[in-house]
User: What shape does this take?
Amino acid sequence: MRQEGRRVAAAGVRQSPVRPPTPGLSRARSLQSFFLRQAVEQGFDDAAFVDRRGRLSEASIWNLAFWDGAAVVWPEAEMLGGTTMGIVRRQLDRLGIPQRVQEVTLADLPALAGAVVMNSWTPGVAVHRIGSVPLPEAPSFLEVLHRAYQAEPLISP
Assistant: This one.
């Protein structure tokens, strides 16, 4: 897996009779694979899902997180919340790092200071572009997420 950053297509933006997969169900569904293959054919590394209200929710096998320069921004939309996302959120709270949940649309991206995808493989891989919208590198954001993940005890007390 490339760790230097990902370019993510925004799937589900076009009007289509086929809806992106239902959040909360297994990610192994064929529609997710379809959107991922379509994104790769268009020169992207992955596909992010946009709901009918235009809100970004998650990527094919990843959760999304954004950075406003001071706080972690979690997308407000239906999604399957991952284990790593839960660990990071819990530890960000413990470390006193601000975070919030809010709707994030493609139009909101230029105002953000960075984005990542995360799953059980990693607490953060930078996203450099979603659709046609470039996103800035945010090494401090990645460092915060990795530090939060590493702060989780391996065995609960």
In short: The two ends are 33 Å apart (CA to CA). The chain has a mean pLDDT of 83. The first strand starts at residue 6 and ends at 11.
